[in-house]
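Weekly modeling sync, notes
Attendees: S.R. (lead), two postdocs, one rotation student

Agenda item 3: backlog of single-chain predictions. S.R. asked that every request posted to the team notebook include the full sequence so nobody has to chase files. The rotation student volunteered to paste the first one in as an example of the format we agreed on. Action items at the bottom.

Example entry:
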Amino acid sequence: MRPGRVSRAGALWRSVIGKKALMAVTGAILFLYVFFHLLGNLQIFTGPEQINRYAALLRVSPQLLWTARVILLVAVCVHAVAGAQLFLLAREARPVAYQDFRPIVSSTASRTMIWSGLLILAFVVYHVLDLTVGVVNPSFQEGDVYHNVLATFGRAVGVIAYVVAMVALGFHLWHGLWSMFQSLGFANRRAAPTIQRFAVTMAVILTLGFSAIPMAVLVGILRP
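Predicted structure, as returned to the notebook:
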């Protein structure tokens, strides 16, 4: 590459449209992870044996597990940094308008995207320290996911932190899924209503699905 010449990746990152495209791609990766993570987590309702077996299965191939973790970490970093930069750019000047039709999906969700994103990021750190590393879990037992979940949600702080973060996730997905399709060029006038319904439906499903676990511990449906 000639001195002073910007690479394609650099040019993509420096442009507003490029940042939005990267946010869309990384957002899609993170959405798929969250969706399948919920499907795995809901196995806890079948009992401790199943959820612990599922967790053990994920660790059968350390190389595959760490590859997935690295991909997710890169996706989170790119998504967060690009989102923060776009937020700052939007405060300094008028946002770049989309060429396609852009109805208002949710003014509350769109206005709070940066804050819901920061809350989710803080929760992810807490969640890893709690149920993966175990340093903030009051009774962490390596490999016993069922026990660790009950220990976490046996405390009011654990339930509140989890439910609040899931509500933030719902708001983030509500506007984020719409923006993802829009940035990738799929949100035209004809497809907009379907995309809106999909975004709202997935936001509600994921929020309620994840929140069902701490609430089930709280009311005694899940017990030792």
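Discussion: group reviewed the output briefly. The chain has a mean pLDDT of 89.
Action items: rotation student to repeat for the remaining queue; S.R. to check formatting next week.
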